[in-house]
Amino acid sequence: MRNLRAAAPASFLAPPAPPLLLPPSTPTPRGAFSAKASPAAAVAQAHGWCPSPRRVGRLRRRSGAASSSVASVEDAKKDVLVALSQIIDPDFGTDIVSCGFVKDLEISEALEEVSFRLELTTPACPIKDMFEEKANEVVAALPWVKKGGVGKSTVAVNLAYTLAGMGARVGIFDADVFGPSLPTMVSPENRLLVMNPESRSILPTEYLGVKMVSFGFAGQGRAIMRGPMVSGVINQLLTTTDWGELDYLVIDMPPGTGDIHLTLCQVVAPLTAAVIVTTPQKLAFIDVAKGVRMFSKLKVPCVAVVENMCYFDADGKRFYPFGQGSGAQARKVVQQFGIPHLFDLPIRPTLSASGDTGIPEVVADPQGDVAKTFQNLGVCVVQQCAKIRQQVSTAVSYDRSIRAIRVKVPDSDEEFLLHPATVRRNDRSAQSVDEWTGEQKVQYGDIPEDIEPEEIRPMGNYAVSITWPDGFSQIAPYDQLEMLERLVDVPRATTAAVSS
Ligand SMILES: Nc1ncnc2c1ncn2[C@@H]1O[C@H](COP(=O)(O)OP(=O)(O)OP(=O)(O)O)[C@@H](O)[C@H]1O
């Protein structure tokens, strides 16, 4: 992973302003699970998914299904079973269909739903999430399974064009390789990504001044891939793209909270902030909570919740098809999780139409109230990103006057000091610790007591990169720094920090 990072074009690695994450969302408006991956709703229900011998848990899974291209329900069932048989139980070495875990598979054409239970065993199994995610992925990848999005791509694209309208240099990365939406939402003249033969980097396509990369522009169509392949493709697309100078990179994340999100949040593109997109009728507290928790674990602050499809206006009246109370629920999310801002978007035929005809609503109707909402969201995102960057850039610094590394924990008053040699001696990278045996390669005495860092740079919101005089570049996550022995009885410094 470090190699990938090192191989990435400098233009991507050092954008002048942070990338922005457009995150996953809660379940689908139609009450069926999103066809493309793992919606939080399904995850939230997953109690007792485990392939161990005790039989406890039962889970009902639903998926939207468009039957048009499936010859019969029986064919569709076979499709689902073949897809699920890609999932191998690591304990038994056999796929979950052969293991007999899949029960009561039903496909209701009327309801356009696929449902089945995975009759697994004991709760609290460490790999239940893996089963959850894989089952979502493989069923979602079936070509006839209908999409049921909450509007992530709609929000991502309109936010990107709003930021561009504010004068920023913006890129959009569509991270959904199972069913990329970007190609239907914008209509660039060049619909194929081009590889620069000399630098071997991918050149993004461009539409109305916004650069964009999507698997849908790679000429491959919908992908049917396993998890590691997906991460690989995302890595490759993101790290080999020559974005040029960007102020913001908006990433349209696939639904769910799996490996792909981890890869995106930490490895490929250290992200600055997340915007949660949800819909009112499914604004289950636990679903948003799952997303917020994932981002919080990955040290990506959620700066706003967009509640999409809240109401519509007709005959001079405003209708709330999911009830007016849903807004209060969203406000609860904002309050309880400390997410500073909530934005409502209406159900609007033009928003849908423009989503499907290639002109984002904020471009088609820049004076409309949807554009105004996006303008407010854009301002919020810009301000929050600036605040986060400011916090991050001063979070860890070297105070030469007292020869100590000063750590200010973001969003808290906590501040502590560390001895530079302690930080260097506690490096956990492969250069310092044998990855297999855990044996310490760098010995205590190898690090001079008076070593001083040359440069400290933030890496996303979760770590700093410290360059030492011998050229060694240490990645120090904040969590790790918080565990180290702190300096006490050091005089409070009055001079400014040297580097951050
Ligand atoms: N506020 C809205 N009013 C009307 N239609 C909308 C609205 N928001 C989204 N849509 C439409 O709903 C469909 C799904 O939206 P979108 O693709 O943005 O969702 P998504 O969450 O990205 O979905 P997926 O996870 O399947 O990619 C699209 O056809 C889009 O145009």
From TrEMBL:
InterPro entries: FSCA_dom_sf (IPR034904), GBBH-like_N (IPR010376), GBBH-like_N_sf (IPR038492), Mrp-like_CS (IPR000808), Mrp/NBP35_ATP-bd (IPR019591), NUBPL-like (IPR044304), P-loop_NTPase (IPR027417), YlxH/NBP35 (IPR033756). Residues 28-37 have a biased composition (Low complexity). GO terms for molecular function: 4 iron, 4 sulfur cluster binding; ATP binding; ATP-dependent FeS chaperone activity; metal ion binding. The keyword Zinc does not apply. Residues 411-474 form the Gamma-butyrobetaine hydroxylase-like N-terminal domain. Residues 17-37 are annotated as: Disordered. GO terms for biological process: iron-sulfur cluster assembly. Signal peptide: none annotated. Keywords: ATP-binding, Iron, Iron-sulfur, Metal-binding, Nucleotide-binding. The keyword Nucleotide-binding applies. Residues 17-27 have a biased composition (Pro residues). CDD domains: Mrp_NBP35. One of its GO terms (cellular component) is chloroplast stroma. Belongs to the Mrp/NBP35 ATP-binding proteins family. This is Gamma-butyrobetaine hydroxylase-like N-terminal domain-containing protein.
